[in-house]
Amino acid sequence: MAPSTPKRKHAGSQGSPSREQPTLFAFLSSPSADDACQLESDAAYARTLASDTAQIEADAAFAQSLQAAWRNDAAPVAEPASTPMPSKVFSPRKRAKIDTAVLDKQLASMDFGMDPSQFDPAIDTTHWPCTHDGIAVPYALLAHGFSIAAKERGRTRILHVMTNMLRIVRHYEPSSLLAAVYLMSNHIAPSFHGIELGLGGAAIQRITLQVSGKKQAYLRKLWAQTGDAGDVAFEAFRDVVQLVEHAPLTLTKVYSTLHAISKASGPRSGATKQSLAARLLSAARGEERRFIVRTLCANLRIHAMRTTVLSALVRAHVLDDGTSQAQLAQASDAPIQSIAAMLQQADALGKRAYARRPDMGSIVDMLRDGIAGLQCAEIVPGTPVTPMLGSITRSFDAVLETMGNAAFVSEYKYDGQRIQLHVGNGVHVFSRHLETITDKYPDLCALAPFLSQHATSFIVDAEAVAVAPDSSLLPFQTLAARARKQVALQDIQVRVCLYVFDLLYLHGRSLLELTLRERRALLRAHFPQHIPTTAQHAGFQYAASCEHTSEMSVRTFFQSACEQRCEGIMIKRLDRPAEANGRMTQLSTYEPDKRSEAWFKVKKDYLQGIGDSLDLVPIGAWQGMGRKAAFWSPILLALYDPDTGMFQAVCKCISGFSDAFYKVLNEQYETAYLPAALDQYETNGLMADVWWPPTQVWEIRGADITISPTYPAAAGIVSERGLSLRFPRFIRERSDKRVEDATTPQQFAAMYLAQANIK
After folding, report:
1. Which residue from 692, 687, 686 is spatially nearest to 673, judged by alpha carbons?
2. Alpha carbon distance 508, 458 (integer Å)
3. CA dihedral defined by 483, 487, 492, 496, rounded to 10 degrees?
4. One-letter-per-residue 3-state SS of 517-532
5. What's the pLDDT tens digit per position in 68-107?
6. What is the 3-state secondary structure (H, E, C) of 424-485?
7. Residue 518 — left, alpha, or beta (φ > 0 → left; ψ -120 to 50 → alpha)?
8. Distance between CA atoms of 70 and 285, rounded to whole angstroms?
9. Which of 118-122, 339-343, 385-389, 755-759 has the lowest mean pLDDT?
10. Cβ-count burial of 91 within 10 angstroms (0-12 exposed, 13-18 middle, 19+ buried)?
11. b vs e for 368-396, b when ≥16 Cβ sit within 10 Å of the residue's Cβ?
């Protein structure tokens, strides 16, 4: 049967991308086979709504019932100690009625985008909510700041907005600071806690329909115009008059309600989640509705990345804390000449601390002791460490020239999944992007008793690789075929071996400051190798390595890695180098969250054009012609800029795709078209026939990188113009990577410069 012809542009198309995590692109989607697991709870919710509606005789009675439900809502269930929650739950105190119009007018008059050094966080709070312990920060404060940030593109001004908001929160209600930080970063807990709201696009549609009273056809029209669930909610409520005025929402109320939504479980969990979200939306006003719905969809669209929020948190603390300023001055090698220099120094400490403890709750706790608390941040078992990365290289000659006469080791670069195994405070397995995948690898967890005979607590950095019964290596696709969640040990069919290449923590001590040679010696001294005998038993092996540094030895080892189905090799400096110009270069210590020149990756296709493949995100396409008229071709690919959250168009790709892949692509995106390009897309005016949500990462190779007048990728780094990839070719989909892991403009520019140096 011939594949269906792709439709050019469906302004009203609904559907959700093929991803486990619901996003705003699922908004207004129709139920499908993928939604079958929610049908029962949805049906229960529909019956509940019908029953409630039958008892409502007028809009006034309906509004009053919602208000009563809100007032009588039970206190949120306390989270376990491991999950950050507000340090106290606020209860209302009698106070004169709050004039919300005055509150909104006051917030609208505030310039959150001004330089924080000139901003005064002490403001009039007469019309703010109040608690037994003092002022409660209204959620309207964040909503106003979000609306400003959403219109900005420059990171500096967005950082100013975030910093000034956090200074106000810290000034009036410091106990809600963590709630504000998480709401700004569009999370309610660290990613490795695995806490999800569990509300899909269809559920959010029903909530908006219920609370606004609008018809579904009207919401579909709004979706076709805006393509954003938050904008739909904002417009749907524009002419809605509330018969009963709600008390202003507070930060802690929103944050605790989101936690209550995430904790709902059981047969009626769907109805419970939707009921809580409906109460939240019914109590919201104006811009609050837009950003509450976007929060439920997990996409605030304010261009504030995790690094921006982290920097804002640290800066807010330093600007208003004299102790921290004194600590920075004392720790500095030279007098701090300006506020800007002081803030940059604080940023560096914040990034260092977060790389070791990627948990905003831990960062907030550290700051209680001033900025010096960040200097004491160390890794601990049970909290993932942001991994160190290798630099991109084009040739052996470039690597050997960089290493010079220094000792180094070559290791196989396995085609598997990079993981961290933590033992101590339990047994935990984390992915390279800091997510908990413990229940995916019960066979790795089963290694803990064997390994604990030799070490009571440890953290290893390793690659989980699928292996055959004869221990030969299998491709990544075999490993990807394993189930991802709640895997039972007895059900495992694909056996795994853990190839360990680094030891980060041992017996209660961080090893990050040791050289690689020292860490390797400790690894081999404390952990014997283990060969698996069944699929239910994982192996534990040292990564294959070679310490010979001659060019012939390295090339021979590289060829061996390719023959063993590896991606290539890693070349790593072993020892601490001598100082150069007063500073250490190419450190052999473990540097979390850094792409170091002490590590280089040499992949087996390094001689083919550019030095490394690119990880790009498909964001749009044009209808094919001729033989490809039934498919989407070419496809527009983009880089990801972590500083701005923008996707920068880099090239069109037409090569490397099979007809079978094109058919799958048609099916995947058949109901996931966007009505227009997202404001997160920088395309330099390119207009695709269809736009897709950013949900996939593809590995792409090309002949070389050139300066381009057409594409905006990495513009301003090498040239005022952007860069583009010539003769791009699709290699494979990287299901192990998120879009946030895609190639960045800085990496792309570095590849261009390395290519130019060789030429």
Report:
1. 692
2. 8
3. 80
4. HHHHHHHHHHCCCECC
5. 444 444 334 343 333 343 333 333 444 557 888 888 898 9
6. CCCEEEEECCCCECHHHCHHHHCCHHHHHCCCCCEEEEEEEEEECCCCCECCHHHHHCCCCC
7. alpha
8. 15
9. 755-759
10. exposed
11. eebbbbbeebebbbbbbbbbbbbbbbbeb
Give the tokens for residue 142: 């964040």
Higher pLDDT, 750 or 582: 750
pLDDT at 486: 83
Fold: same for 31-304 and 614-758: no
Domain boundaries, the chain: 31-304, 321-375, 389-603, 614-758
Distance CA 65, CA 246 (A): 12
Distances in Å between the alpha carbon of 132 and those of 67, 91, 103? Answer: 22, 7, 20
Q: Is 434 exposed, middle or buried (0-12, 13-18, 19+ CB in 10 A)?
A: middle
What residues does 596 pair with on adjacent strands? 390
For residue 378, the SS3 value is coil
Return the CATH fold of 389-603. D-amino Acid Aminotransferase; Chain A, domain 1 (3.30.470)
The Cα–Cα gap between 529 and 542 comes to 7
CB of 423 closer than 8 Å to CB of 507: no
Please state the rounded mean pLDDT for residues 8-31: 40
What is the sign, positive or negative, of the torsion defined by CA atoms of 729, 26, 15, 487?
Answer: positive
CA 161 to CA 512: how far, in whole Å?
Answer: 35
Measure the CA–CA gap between 736 and 479, rounded to whole angstroms. Answer: 10
For residue 301, the model assigns a pLDDT of 86
Distance (Å, whole) CA 203 – CA 46: 11
How far is residue 751 from each of residues 606, 618, 734, 748, 757, measured CA to CA in Å?
Answer: 12, 20, 20, 5, 10
Cα–Cα distance measured from residue 433 to residue 737, given in angstroms and rounded to the nearest whole number: 8
SS3 257: helix
Tens digit of each residue's pLDDT (9 = 90 or more) over 549-570: 888 899 899 999 988 989 889 9
**Lowest mean pLDDT segment, chosen from 265-279, 609-623, 628-642:** 609-623
| Burial group, residue 487, by CB count within 10 angstroms (0-12, 13-18, 19+) | middle
- Measured in degrees and rounded to the nearest 5, phi and psi for residue 451 equal -70, -30
Element (H, E) at 48: helix 36-54
- The highest-level CATH class for domain 31-304 is mainly alpha
pLDDT score of 248 more than 60: yes
The DSSP H or E segment spanning 725 is: strand 722-726
Identify whether the C-beta of residue 587 lies closer than 8 Å to the C-beta of residue 597.
no
Which tokens in the block code for residue 723? 């860069």
Q: Mean pLDDT in the chain? A: 82
Highest-scoring range by mean pLDDT, 1-5, 72-76, 469-473, 702-706? 469-473
Residues that are catalytic: 413
State whether the Cα torsion 126-128-134-137 is positive or negative: negative
Determine the Cα–Cα distance for residues 152 and 736; give it in Å rounded to an integer.
32
Chain mean position to CA 739: 8
**Which of the following CATH numbers is that of domain 614-758: 1.25.40.10, 3.90.1150.10, 2.40.30.170, 2.40.50.140?**
2.40.50.140
| 489 Cβ contact partners less than 8 Å away, ≥ 6 residues apart | 442, 443, 446, 536
User: Which of the residue ranges 91-95, 227-231, 594-598 would you say has the lowest mean pLDDT?
Assistant: 91-95
Say if residues 632 and 690 touch (Cβ distance below 8 Å): yes
Residue type, 113: G
Q: pLDDT tens digits for 661-697?
A: 998 888 887 766 777 777 889 999 888 888 898 999 9
Q: Specify burial of residue 713 (Cβ count, 10 A radius: 0-12, 13-18, 19+).
A: buried
Q: What is the pLDDT of residue 665?
A: 87
Q: Please, what is the end-to-end C-alpha distance for the chain in angstroms?
A: 49
